[in-house]
Design goal:
Blueprint: H1 33-50, H2 52-56, H3 63-70, H4 75-90, H5 98-127, H6 133-140, H7 162-181, H8 186-202, H9 226-246, H10 253-269, H11 279-291, H12 295-300, H13 303-330, H14 335-338, H15 341-375
Length: about 375
């Protein structure tokens, strides 16, 4: 959801404060603009899902469209795959040592916490009367989805933040796993990747925890525990490592198109736990976007698309606070304006998220990196 994609070209370089020796290895990784941009579509898909009740009350939609919009929560699965892929790709040569692990965690904290904290500040006026101290502390420390005995913590304060709690667990584990799998053989990567894919599909990991948001969901766990969603992140890691070691750049527009089509079809015609089959076209799509140079990846590489991709983290995490602020503001206007809350929110959200990305997320990330680098 928040993989650091925009990094400079792959070449031998001296260690720098941003890429110290041992953290990024001997080289930097080239940017993959298409993977930056695809994040926006995934984030906006979630926003559309939350707009479904308003749309259904006004438009008669075909059943596949309703199913497609209802399955927007599966974008989180795409985020987990993408996060594992990009981290493995960016830190493919992560060297052993607690100092390198600490620098990796520092980079992750600086990347995700500024917007995370802003989302909590914006949501606080609407949650303060129901937010307990234990819930607040769990959310602030990003562990709200870690406790199977306290499922009510998962959606506390700003409930899209539950996925960042799971990402925090992934980040904690990543350095130790990456240092052990980076040098595996091609065959080992293929076997592990196939195994992780089967676990995601057959164990229905993308559907786990759905019971929080959909009481009628089939075979849902009480909360989406990090360990349950880990196969999706691990599959992304395997793909990222395989791409670094054995991948090649090729013109594959047909494969990318088929992966997009298969993703849409799987999201439009599957319900219940078997929505997990979407993991397969998701994985193919990400790998194809990373390895192809074609008209589709060219579209994803336009500056406006990259800007929207950069703002996608804010789009995802700020969607509910912005919706509440828009609703609260429009509540003091006429009834006709108040009813425009649902269509106005996505527009305001995207514009606001671009501003947050440019003037909050990026500046604070740099400041935090500098301060933590000096302290560590």
């Amino acid at each position: 959801m928040s993989g650091e994609i925009q990094v400079s070209s792959r070449q031998n370089v001296e260690a720098s404060p941003r890429y110290p020796a041992g953290l990024a290895g001997r080289s930097r990784s080239p940017s993959i603009p298409a993977l930056t941009s695809v994040r926006f579509f995934a984030a906006f898909y979630v926003v559309l899902t939350h707009s479904l009740p308003w749309i259904k009350n006004r438009v008669s939609l075909p059943l596949p469209v309703v199913i497609f919009l209802s399955n927007g929560y599966l974008a989180v699965c795409l985020f987990f795959l993408l996060s594992g892929f990009i981290l493995a790709y960016t830190y493919s040569e992560l060297a052993p040592g607690i100092q390198n692990c600490a620098k990796f965690w520092e980079a992750r904290f600086a990347r995700i916490y500024p917007v995370y904290f802003l989302s909590l500040l914006l949501a606080l006026p609407f949650q303060i009367h129901t937010l307990s101290l234990k819930s607040a502390l769990a959310v602030l420390f990003m562990v709200q989805a870690w406790n199977p005995l306290r499922p009510e913590l998962t959606g506390a304060w700003n409930y899209p933040a539950w996925s960042l709690s799971i990402e925090a667990f992934f980040y904690l584990c990543f350095p130790f796993i990456q240092m052990r799998i980076a040098s595996m053989s091609r065959r080992a990567f293929q076997l592990l990747g196939a195994g992780a894919l089967l676990v995601c599909i057959l164990c229905h990991t993308p559907a786990q925890g759905l019971g929080i948001w959909n009481p009628n969901a089939v075979a849902a766990l009480p909360i989406p525990l990090p360990i349950v969603r880990f196969p999706e992140f691990f599959l992304g890691m395997i793909m990222g490592n395989f791409f670094v070691r054995f991948g090649s750049v090729a013109r594959q527009p047909l494969l990318t198109f088929l992966a997009i089509l298969a993703s849409i079809l799987s999201l439009s015609f599957t319900t219940g736990p078997w929505v997990s089959v979407a993991v397969l076209p998701f994985a193919v799509l990400l790998y194809s976007l990373a390895s192809s140079r074609d008209v589709i990846t060219s579209f994803f590489s336009y500056p406006i698309m990259i800007l929207l991709g950069g703002a996608s983290y804010s789009v995802y995490l700020l969607q509910l606070p912005v919706r509440d602020w828009v609703r609260s503001t429009l509540a003091h206007t006429t009834a006709s304006l108040s009813d425009l809350n649902a269509p106005l929110t996505p527009v305001i959200l995207v514009l606001f998220s671009i501003l947050v990305f440019r003037y909050w997320e990026e500046p604070l990330r740099k400041i935090i990196r500098q301060r933590l680098a000096a302290w560590l």
